[in-house]
Structures are given as C-alpha cells and as structure tokens.
C-alpha cells in the first residue's frame, strides 16, 4: 500500500477535475431542464419552473465522493458510502452518473449530453427522482430525510463484511441528533477480525437550515477530545473559503491515506491475533471542515451565501424571472469550466475519469448497496428441533421466547461460518428468555473484558447495547446490505424507534418500485416482555402501540403476528425469517404460556393466519350463538378461560372460539394483501352473531381493521386501555376489562335470549371479578383460582 | 462559601449514618411487609409474597442523595434531583421519607415505625407505589422506566431558574441511549446569567440488566476526554468494593464542593458581565464509580452479586422459602445497624438527620418538582393584535404559522422579565415561518458567535437544536417545573419523540391521581410543514401518524386540533397555552391558506370544535342530501373546492359542509371528554346521509373515532394513504385520492338518485383529475386552474 504522500500536481488536478464535474452536475440538477452543457447562453426557458434541492451539502459530499473514488481506484479497496446528508441527493446522483453505474441501471439516462439533460430534468420533479437519496439513487442505503442514522447504518453494513470499507459522511446537523450522538460508540462492537471498517467523515460545513451547528462552533481541541473520547483517532482537514481546492485535495488525500493505513494496520494485527494483547483499536475518523455551499455563489444582494446557511437549499432563487440572477447562475455554473470536463457529446473527458473506479468497485455499483444481490436463503433448523410436545390443548405450558431462543441458537450455529445472521437487542436477550443463543454465539464486545463476564466475546454475533436506535440502525444496515437479522425488544420500547421503522418501511416500499433493486431480507421484530406481563415494572413499560403504528404504513411491506403459544411462535418466526422486503412484527410472551397447538396444528393454523378452534367451542353444527375471538397470548388464555366457564355455566350456549395469528387477516383484501375476503371473513366470524374480541393491544385497532365487515356492528373489543401500574398479571387484565369474567359478562350482555339463568351467571362472574380485586389488594398476589387455572379439556 | 476541605470524622460519620439509613430503607422496601425495624428475627411471614424492585442502582442514588442533602443544608443551596435510574424508586422514596416530606404529603406514612412498615409494604405492590419513580414519588419529575431523558429534563428544569442547582444522576445504562448521548451538549444552550446550574453525576456502577456498560469499560482517560469533549470539567470519584464508605464520603464531598465552587464562579462571572470575554464556561460534572449494589449481598450460591449485574433487581430471591437466604437477608439488613439509625419509635436519630435539610429546601419538597405550585397564568396578548381581517370567506389568504409567530412574539415580549415561556424547535423556526418571534427573543446560544450570525444570542428564549429528543426533553423539564412552552416541529418528525410524548402523557395522567400534585401547563406541539406541503422534500417528510399515536393515549390528557385557517389557529393556540395537565397537538400549515373565518367566527367555531359551515353548503332547510366533512387546512380547501364545483355542476344537490377543529369531538363522550353526544353528533353529521370526510391524516383514524355513530356505515374517509414523493401540492392530494375532483366523484358514487346529469358531472371530474396528472408530469407544476382557484362566494 502506498505511503501517505503529497499528490503530484497532475493527480491533484485530476481530482479537482472530477470534483468540479460532480459539482457542476449537482448544481445543474437544481436548475436546468435544458442546455445541459451551456452550449448557449442561459435563457429562462432552460430553467425549471420549480427550483428544488439542497445545494449547501453537495460540495462536501462530492469532495468525499471524489476522494473515495481515488482510494478505490488506486488501491482496489472495496468501499461503499453512507451519505448522512442525503438531502444532497444531487451529489450522490452526480457520482453515479459519472461512474457510469447510473446508465446501466437507467438506460434512459446515458453518460452523455442527452443523458445529462435527462438527469437534470428528472431531479426533484413530479414523477422523477426525489430530492433526497432514496432507493432510486444507486449506491445508497438510506433515505436522506430523517437524520441521525448514517453511522449506525454504516456499522450495520460493515458487520461481517471483513473486506469492506464503509465511509459514513455525517453532517454536522445530523451529528446533533441523539441516535447519531450515541452511534459513535458503535466502535465498541466492531470486530476487527470478522467485520469491515467504518470510516466516519464528520463534515462540518457550519450550518443547518437556519442555525449554526454545535460541533462546528467548538474549539478544535474540544472537538478532538470528543472524538478521542468516543474512541477514535481524529484526522482534521480544514478548508476555508479562500483555501485553494488543490490544497484541500492534498490534505484530504493525505488524511484518507493515513486512515487507510491505520485501518489496515488494525485489521492485520487483529487478524493475526495480535490485537487481543494490544487492546481495543482506536479507529481513525476524519473531521472535514469546508464552507457550506463551497464553490457556489459568494453573495446575493449583498448578503454572504457561500459559507452560510443561505446556501442550504437553492442559493440563487428566482433566476427565471430575474436576468441579473440568471447571469449570476450562468457565471457560477461556468466557473466549473464544463467545456474542460465534458466532450462534444457531453461525455466526461479522460482526466475527469482518471480516478473513477470501474465495475463492481464503483460506489454506484457496489453490490452491498443493493443488498438483495448478495442475499442467500437462511439455513433455518427444522422446527422439530425446538418445538414443544403438546398432548392435548392446555395440558402443558412453556415460555414461548425460550423455545424461540433454541431456534435462534440453531440458526446462529448454522451460520457460524457464513456469518449472515445476527441478533440485536437492548440489554434484554437474557431478560427476554432468549439466552439459549449464547450456546452458539457470544455477545460481541470490544470494550474491556473482566474475568467475571459471561458470554461476552470479541467475535459474537449477538449485539446488545442500551440504545434501541443503535439496534434498529444496525439491523437496517445489516439487512439492506444483504444479510438477515432480528431485533428483540421489550414491546413498549419498540416505540422508541417507531419513526425509524416507518422510514425503513418507506424505503422498502419505494425500493419495490425501483426495477434494479433486488429484494432484501425482512426486518424482523420480536416484541416480548409485553404490556400484560410487566410484573416487575410499571406503567411506562406498558404500551402495545407499535402494532398500530406499523399497521398504518405501506401494507405491501408490513406484517403483524400474534402467536398464541410456543409452537405458533416458532412457525411465525420461521416464516418471518424467510420473507423478503417486509417488516415483520411478532409479539410473544416470555412467561409460561399454555401450549394449545402441537407443531403440525401450529403450522396449519399459522398458514391460515386465523382459524376456528373447534375443540375450544361448544358449537353443535348449526353455527354459533356467540363468537369469542382472540389475538395474543394473554387474550387467548382469558378467552379460553371464559369459554370453559361458559361451557360449565351455560352449557346450552353455542360458543365459537376464533384465534387470530396474522392480524392483517382482519383487513379487507383491498387494504392489505393478507386480508380475508368478505366471504372468508364471514365464514369465520359470522355476519350477525355477537363477537367478543379479546385483543392484545388497543381495542380500537380491531375496529379500524374490521370497520367494513358485515359483523362490525356486533363487535365488542376488549384490550389494553392504557390502564397500568406495577401490579399482578391478572389484575392487569381486570383493570383493562379483558379478564375471563368480564368476557363472560360481555357474552351475556350481548347475546339476546339467554334467559334468567344467564343473569345469575353474570352475577357470579361479576362477584368473582370483584373478589379478585379485593384479594389482590389484600395479598399482593393473584387468587389461586386464576394462577392455578388449567384448561379442562373436553 | 466553604473551601473544599476534608470532612471531619464526625461529619463523615453523620453522612455515613444517613447513607446507611437510606440504604436500609431502600432494601427493606423490596422485601419487608412487617417487622420493619428488625425488632425480632426475620421470619418468612415478614417477607412480601412477590419480591419486586431494583436494588442495584439504589446505593448510588442514596449516596448522591446524601451528599446533595449536605450541600443543601450546609449552604442553603436550592437544589433538586433528576433521578435517571428511576427504576430505583425505592432510593428516592427513602429520601423523601427520611427528610419528612413524605409524611406531609402522605399522612398515612409517618416518619416512624408504623410509617416505615407502611412505606415498605406499599412499595411495588398492587394499589401501592410503583417500583419506578412516578408522580407519587416526591421530588421527582420523571418516570424511571424509559431511559434517556434525565439530562434533558435537568436542563429544562434549570432554564430560567437562576438560583437552582439541578443534579442529574445519569446511569451508565441510560448513558448509552441516543437522547442521553446528545443531551450532554445541552450546556451550549444554558445561559449562566438567567439559568440555573446543572450538575450531572454520571454514575458508573458497571452493569445494566445483564451486560456491562460501555462507559464503565472505557479507560479513565478516554472517558475524561469524552466529558471534556462534551464541554465539561469532569471530577472523578471512584469507590471499589473494598473502599471504606467514609473514604468515599470524603471524596464525593470534596468533588461536590469543588463543583459548587466552580458553578458559583461561573455564575458570578457571567452575572457580573465578565463571561462574554472569558468564553463559554466549562461546567463541572462528576463521574461517580461505585460497585453495583454496593453494601448489598456479596455472593449468592458462590457467584458474586455485589459489583455485578446479579444485583440489578432483587439480589437475594426466594428468601421466603429458603431459610439460608432469609438468614443472608437478615445479615445484610442488620449490617446497616438499624438500631443506631432509628430510635425506639422508628424515628430517625439526630445524627442521621444532621445533614438533612428542612422546609422547601428538602429534595422531597422542592417546589420545582411539583411545578404546578409555581405556575402562573400567562400574559397572552389579545388575539386582535395578530388576527387577520376576513371580509368574506376565501377572499384572502395568509400563512397561519406566520400569524402564530406574531402571537408568540407578543407572548415572548410579555414574558421578558418573568421568563416563564419558551419556544423549542429543531432548527425550523424560520422554515416554519415563525420567525416573527426573533423580534422579541434571540435564539439562545452559548457556543461560538460570528459576526454574520442573526438572531443568535446568549440570553435568548427560543432554543433550536437538531434533536427533537432534546427539544421534547427540555420542554418536559420546563413544564414540569412550573413554566410554559411550545414545541414547533415538522409534522413527520414529531414521530421521533412519539415514545417520549407517550411517557409524558402517562406521567400527567398518573399525576392527576396524586392528590398533592398541582396541575402543570400543557405540553404544546405545533406540527407544521405537514404531510401535504412537503414541496421541497419527499416521502420521508410525509407522515401524519403522530395524531394517531397521541389519540391512543389517556383521553383525559390528549387533545388534537386541526385549525382550518389562520384565525382558527390563533384561537386554538391561545386556548392550548391556557390549558393545564394536557398534551395539545395542533396541526397547522405554513403556506398561504385561505381565510375562512374572521376572529369572532373563529372563536365561536373553535369553542364548538366542530360546526356546519352554512355559507359553504347548499341546504334549503330540509337537511342535506350529502355531507362534506373536513378536518385540516388542505382537506378544508379541497372540500370547499368540491362544494363549489357541486354548486355549479349539480345545483339541486343539498350539500352540507362540516368542519372539525377538535378531532376528539368525533369520539363518543364515554371515550373522550370532548366527545359529542350521539344526539349532537347526529345533528351535525346526520344519521343516514352519505358523509364524505376529507381528513388530514390516515383515513382510518376517522373510522376508529366514529365507529359507534349511527352514520358510520355511510362514511367514506379520504386522507393520507402513505403515497408520497417530491411532487407538487395538488399532485399530493390527487395521489392520495383527496382532491376536489375525487371528492365530487365520491359524492356522486355515494348519493343515490342523482340521475343522468350526475354521470356526466362525474366524468367531467374524472377527466379534470386525469388532465391534472398529465399536466404535472409535463410541466412539473400544478395546473393554473387549481393554483389560481378561489372560493367563489355566493
């Protein structure tokens, strides 16, 4: 590998030519719909009617792009970019156009004058390419809208990609977000043996939309201390407004060279086994300070533009109507000397392409940024290896997540060499009863190790950090680069990443519409320690709203499963891990839960997603008097308890028990691909019988999913009604009106013609309910008749 | 003020007595329901049936509590605690019991043996006090469940409280979260002249639930660099397992003394005007390292407990059933020598109380932690000062948020001396067209200032940082300590703090049930730059789901308003700023929006929350044929455009136009206090006419709110259907089926008996819709007939 050395003048000039070309291409995307090469003086009709885009960040992005291209082409280094300031999509598109990857994916946008015109006209226009990086931008794995995830995505991309360099450009705006602020610590989880390298470039251009940025206004020693405190070796590259670009190229090239040498040294030491002695490596990072909108218009109407927030979006507005501004624009664009950069046909001249890589090494063509190209089927262990035996429904009980832990253990073992599956979680793998996985993998950890540590190691593929944002960002980066994973979380705290999840759904939904994007693995959540079983915690830990949130997003992507027992959880997890381009939310308990279905029954039930549990009901062939429906483990238990009370107390009543695993089955097929047709729905739920639905989450979700069904007017839903505290499990269902006694009362209240017997049964249920409340307050524990309850069989 | 000096032996011993007392009280809360003073040997029946609580963090919290008490009582320093590891509620409760504040608020729990027994029995039991800090814990302003907000809350509490010291205990688990990681930078926004001081105590006990913590495993120089990089002067206090507590007391006392001197010096310099020259102050912070569960059981079954994750929750489980463990528990509890700490009646002995403050200085009694005690009515300017003139509906247009900016400017000016109102936002005040506020207040900023900066200053009360988490956390801290504020955000990015908002709702809901908590000001959101007008951005910026999220939380707290124009926004904002114990979400546009109502009409409309706009419809006295309902500014515009097309095209059709401002009016009064009765609802919406509802957000929300209404089966809702991109405003409504033409088609499709004329009208609407799509693709802009459209009046 070359030593860091000064560039020759010729090298610096070639880099500068590339940078100018990228800046020209970026700026023109904001403005031009014709005359792309400025062959004639600019006229208003060459200008787009609506000027949209973000110029301010572009020159920094193009600078990094140029220098990454140099590293790649000089060293054959495999690399990808994660473009934090993705609202500067014009810059990333410029790179893909210039390296020729764009024309391969978009044959209508060739690397010539006509293609250039199309590139410009398409940008940020209705029906065209969005103004932020999106799936339609080659070489990108993140939307450039919601800031904060660049570094987490970069680490996710680098895990288990030992030869890859992931360069993450972090804007100084983004750096103020919480998720980004904690992402710097991801270096304590990067295994230098099995993982690739992340090279963060903190790009200080000084301003956000209208404010200075915090980090840009720190003294350099303070910022340096911060980066060293985060565990990096910072390399500072600073360009002021008057710095000559050639000088900046020299400085940045030297910094990148130094960074690559340091990375190489770290990796060689680790891979030769020497690092264990040397301690955790301090990876390099670059602090790149350049003026915002560098090389753009210096001033407008006497106010400074370059180097200030005024260059954030369109630095010269109104150019179509103001000849003086049109002249300024032309002067600006011509300052890049396009005639030196592009030939007669608009093709880049050789000097411009001198340091631009070719083939799959191009940043626009790197396979990891279109991860589906690399995705392989997972070697999932047979479910028989972890299923629980079920002689008859309700005879036994298991902890569902413990069996899931066995499944994941098998999967981690089977992928030990492939290393394309990981488990992520915020310090809860053990608490969530998934600790079987430690038999196949340690928890990955690069910070200090102590003799008392258990299941912590340098090469583990279970990652735990108390930041749901990091877990989510890592998993997104891991999945989008062609691998597989699962995020297990306390149910309530999935809400911390609700917004990230929504952005990922948007990404996947949009990617499905981009012809060249290959499907990626599902992003899988297992939400456990759920609202009903927060025995050791309180109100803050009780929130089932993540389901509602996810179900409001693109139905082609989102799936929600509520397996009622252990074997159904295994079937659902097995399915989820095989799906593509989806976001799967699986809600499952960690506490002992009755086993209702054996493995074959579970498979059949999960395949249907919803089904009548004939063994649990009391129908006699002519349809039910009432339907007891349930979704979720605790609601299923209460529903079966209610069914067994009704069988005992009102044996004449024909009760149907319906269990729902795949909640989207409730929706109309016009609203979700999993939706049951009205005919199927009516067959299961009837058109006109009372339906008492015990649901895991907020009850109105079921109303919103079923509002167009015939039976909707007959539907009473019980669920979590935001009543919680530190209390017993049964008291939780009582507080929220979802307990067995309340369900019995609902049945009696809603089923007409039950007669006098029913009234006394209702009173009995009401009394038991009341007695329970008193018992709990007196004893601080649930009544034995609920804790010891068993499904009586038939 | 005293110099930092060594404690005398007596002082150290008094502190240690206090610490032991607090530890004893904490540990006993986890275990005992009787025999509180260990007057007899422990027997199983003294032990609670369910052992719940978190011991591991308690000894650290009690240590900080003890030393804060010393500072307060020695110096008369006003201080409050923000207890990040709030799952250690037992420790905070112990403090409030010991300082006598608890018995004042809970007369049933006196500071004696009987009260002690009640304190223990009540803890973490059904119907008792939750195991996490919650509103029932005196001196606390945050739930100890969802981690990450301690430091942001602390800064929010310190703003505009110049004499207050806010000590924020940050657990090393919490420190891994994103929100906490960026909260350190809040020191760039703390004005040493007008604000109080924040003293962060980073408590490294080394472990989370089951993992080591990142920060505890860093070398000390790296952690020190991190803290200096964050802009602090760290003071390290380290106690190992074998450190004598007296030594630890001496070290921590010295660190706290040093910190207070430094804080005093910073404040004196700033308040004398000397700081402007000296530059941004580097505030002190303390890194306190102690073993997890320090002073608790050393071992269990041969495994280390103290100093490891095994002491996280209940360090000795199963004590009721295992005599040996019961013996271990007794030995542990007796190790605090309770007989030296409490007298015969269970009252704390004088030595224990020597450094415990009195009156409002007590941490359990500090008025700021029960902020409603300090809350004053806001001097809101008369709305006439910022209302817009409206000659007739739709004649003019204004930018709603610009007028709101005028209202806020007036409020900021009127509170210039009181300093009890602040505006928070993530770098968007300008972008959200609220910049009028700068006439009354700068943006507060303590980092570097440049000559080119505008509206940035040391003493501003508008705070902008690119972290919604910080904005939210600051506002929560500010409001909970008795002040008022507003958070203005891009609509989509409110989702970033969905989880924080839910926790705040839980806090307020629970606080309403605590007799001694006084009502606090509303937490107000203005969500603008909303889903329909993301002209400059794309899909990532289009998400109206925050409304759905908030409406799923406690209805006694949450309110959502969708003002259709400028004057209604002013009325809604004025109302929101006067409310107590609520979370108000106001969604409003920043782009020019037709003025429909003058100020008086707006007041009347907002007072009702929903109303028939007779001037917009074509009823002739015998009820409508169809109802066009709308909520939100863009839906209102499209609805009125549809109404005017129908008037022109189908003049015989009796159309009623209904506008909804307060979305909870749609709900049943059993589900939300603002819900209309069925009779009122039917009067407005009819029981049986088709209702075409154009709604700002996800359409199913309206279904879920109205599912029990008579007219529900006749309801068709149009809204945002997750179809977005960078495109024109009208194309957005077309893509989502909420455009005027689509609404006309809906009316025709759903109103029976319209005859042949209607079919041709429908075709005309469909043609116009199609023509628009083509126009947009060809011109990159909306058709003039929609951009130039004006309400024709009557």
UniProtKB/TrEMBL annotation, chains A, B:
InterPro entries: Phosphoketolase, THDP-binding, Transketo_C/PFOR_II, Xul5P/Fru6P_PKetolase, Xul5P/Fru6P_PKetolase_C, Xul5P/Fru6P_PKetolase_CS, Xul5P/Fru6P_PKetolase_N, Xul5P/Fru6P_PKetolase_ThDP_BS
Enzyme class, spelled out: lyase
Start and end residues of each Xylulose 5-phosphate/Fructose 6-phosphate phosphoketolase N-terminal domain: 8-373
Pfam families associated with the record: XFP (PF03894), XFP_C (PF09363), XFP_N (PF09364)
Keyword terms: Lyase, Thiamine pyrophosphate
Cofactor: thiamine diphosphate
Similarity field: Belongs to the XFP family.
Record protein name field: Probable phosphoketolase
Source organism of this protein record: Streptomyces spirodelae
